[in-house]
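During the second half of the funding period, the structural biology subgroup turned its attention to how the target accommodates small molecules. The most pressing case was zinc ion, which had performed well in the primary screen but for which no bound structure existed. We therefore specified the complex as follows and requested a full 3D prediction, including the ligand pose.
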Amino acid sequence: MRIKCPYCGERDSQELSFLGQADLVRPDPDGTDAQQAFHDYVHIRPNPAGVNRELWLHAHGCRSWIIVERNTLTHAISSVEYASPRFREKAQ
Ligand SMILES: [Zn+2]
């Protein structure tokens, strides 16, 4: 699979590390159900078939954190952007 890093350009996916879902929200540690919420946050992850937003690190390149929108059935990539809004603004 080839992924187009916003900084380096198109690279083989072996240069990057997959780090999971891009849009997970860390639970409130002071919440009444914090223990269960953190259990689910750490151990219960969705495994969608279809379009998915994923967090990747260009570990063997520029070390940018990027969000890849990818169809898990076809591996077709529809978008790639910096994970940090600060870098997204600079790229435009
Ligand atoms: Zn890169």
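Two results from this model are relevant to the next phase. The radius of gyration is 15 Å. Residues 34-43 form the longest helix (10 residues).
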